[in-house]
Amino acid sequence: MFIRQPIVTGTFYPNESQLLKEMIEGFLHQATTPKLKVQPKALIVPHAGYIYSGQVAAYGFKILENKLYKKIILLGPSHHFSFQGLASSPSGYWETPLGKIECLGKEDLKELKKTKEIIESSEIHEPEHCLEVEIPFLQVVLKEFKIVSFLTGELNIKTATKVLEPLIDEETLILVSSDLSHYYPYKEAQKLDKVTIDAILDNDSKRLEEFGEACGKTGIDILLEIAKNKHWQPKLLKALNSGDITGDKSQVVGYASIVFL
Description:
With 261 residues, the protein is an alpha/beta fold. The protein has a single domain (2-260), classed as LigB-like (Protocatechuate 4,5-dioxygenase, Chain B, 3-Layer(aba) Sandwich). It contains 9 helices and 12 strands. It has helices at 17-30, 50-62, 122-125, 135-141, 157-164, 186-201, 205-211, 217-230, 242-246; strands at residues 2-4, 42-45, 71-77, 86-88, 92-96, 99-103, 118-120, 146-152, 172-177, 182-184, 234-241, 252-260. The strands form 2 sheets. Strands 2, 3, 4, 7, 8, 9, 10, 11 and 12 form a 9-stranded mixed β-sheet that branches. Helix 5 (157-164) packs across helix 8. The protein starts with a strand and ends with a strand.
């Protein structure tokens, strides 16, 4: 049986379960979120080390508390491989210090079995942190759920949307893992990130593609296309950059949590 082992424990987040849970609960306690009348359909959340982006991520995850989802579709960029299409994780489990979560692969999902745009690869997923860091937060705020994990390669956004849409129902959440601009001075990063965030909030994928900066831009593009088709509306929950956290404003990384309702 495939078990995807965590690879950034002890660096991006604590490797001891109690410390990890306490850290996440501390972030959630500090986050303030609006009361929602409808169940969130999708989230964009950052994926840096928890000491940098954990507080911003908590604004997104807190909004999921006491919600019920059977399936979480994870979308994020591959930082290590170039490939065509979407790379899904094999069927099995993903492990974190908080336990194992079942992962659905192509063989579990009839909608994906004959889809050429999806390759199944443990090799592509093994070294990648961007989806792994989201799972402990999910384990704290949700009870029972399964994941479907995709890393994005070179692909056609509309084609990818048609592939993923059949997986979505009322008990599904799409989670896009993405940081914003990287390594600009503080003020410049703020301006760049505002352009990116405003494009997302306006559901303007063309503006996002031309002027936005985000390492998970492909996943965001797919989400925007799905949101247009399903008439979901985005709402900004929190945006900061690493300079706000560490005080070092010479070169910063931007983070935002955005919910789609």
